[in-house]
Amino acid sequence: MNRNSTIAFIFCAILVITGVILFVAGRDMKVLKDAFSGNVTTTTLEYQGDVLRNDTDSIGFQRAVTDEELAELVSRYSFDETFYPYFGMLTAEQKKAYYLVYDCALNAGKSILLGDVVDLDKQDAMTVVSAVYNDHPELFWMESGVTYSYHSHNDSVSSLILKYNNLVYDLDNAREAFESQADSILNEAETKGDALHKEAFIHDRICELCTYDVNATNHQSAYSCLIEGRSVCSGYARSFQYLMQRMGVPAYYVIGTDAKNMSHAWVIVRFGSDFYNVDVTWDDDMSDQLNMDVHAFFNVSDEAMSSTHVRTENSVNLPACRDDSLSYDKVIGDTVTIDQLSFR
């Protein structure tokens, strides 16, 4: 082979090798592009996201959850439907995902690769994440949204990427402050007599600690109310829900609308076999407006609040509140009642 032939051969070989490299790289990039866009073509290279609490904040691809790991979570956690009603509303398949989402959120993991363990569609994904969010106010760093990847040929979800507020970046200290405040409130509540007087103390303590502020940071969380002192209705409701749960009283987070058809949140509590509405936010607001302590929305019936509070989403499936025999004016002391208030 002469010199010119040798050069030509080497040049052709380089072109062939370059073409193979580009083909392989292009194929791998297609897999990665599909994984990030949601048009999933593989279950082995699905984007898993970063675990925010790792020192390195690493990003990588991880394996799917196994049946054995799911079974271990089911045995580790117990979700009594008396205390976790949104869990009770789920299908069997959705409940599997609930365990995975709860464990991921509890440990501040960002995402879950479902594999073949759980079969969810896109609506299921939102339903499950909302159920965990609504049942667990103690997960104050968790937000209600979710990003998911799904298989384009059948819309089945392959991964869930959870969302958190900025408290997740210093979670150990945030948890310590939150639990310390909750312990302090509950310890003082224990000195107030029966369960209803303890409930009233918790209601009033939240009103003392918190000011309504739509511009507050982390304002959808119980932390914003109990620690930062500025929140919106979600923060008021979730802090009350959490403290009542800690006291052993079932307390359910309610999503709905108010008299102006704006989004609103409050709580349902259970005493014995009966259920009662409590809206700490409105009581605090009315107290500020009237310059006196107001407990108009303390343990009241659905009928009493029907002109101002309407349940929406899965909250319509929570138990009806038909009784008002434990309202503040009937068991604790004098207060302004709902029928004495006027709403525009």
Structure description:
- With 344 residues, the chain is of the alpha+beta class.
- The chain is built from twelve helices and ten strands.
- It folds into two domains: 67-164, no CATH class; 170-340, Roll (C8orf32 fold), CATH 3.10.620.
- The protein has helices at residues 3-37, 67-76, 85-88, 92-106, 122-135, 171-189, 195-209, 222-228, 233-246, 280-290, 302-305, 328-331, and strands at residues 111-113, 142-150, 157-164, 211-212, 230-231, 251-257, 263-271, 274-278, 298-300, 310-311.
- Strands 9-8-7-6-10 form a five-stranded antiparallel β-sheet. Strands 1-3-2 form a three-stranded antiparallel β-sheet, sandwiched between helices. The chain has a two-stranded parallel ribbon with strand order 4-5.
- Strand 2 and strand 3 form a beta hairpin.
- It is globular and about 60 Å long.
How much beta, percentage-wise? 5-15%
Determine the structural class based on helices, strands and strand pairing. alpha+beta
> CATH topology of the largest domain, anyone?
C8orf32 fold
Main beta sheet: strand number and arrangement?
5 strands, antiparallel
Written as H for each helix and E for each strand, in order along the chain, the element string is: HHHHEHEEHHEHEHEEEHEHEH
Radius of gyration: 26 Å
Oligomer: single chain
Instruction: Work out the number of β strands.
Output: 10
Quickly name the level 1 CATH class of the largest domain: Alpha Beta
Assign a percent range to the helix content: 40-55%
Shape, principal axes of CA atoms: globular
Question: How does CATH name the architecture of the largest domain?
Answer: Roll
Number of helices: 12
Distance between the ends? 97 Å
Low-confidence stretches: 6-61
What's the mean pLDDT score?
84
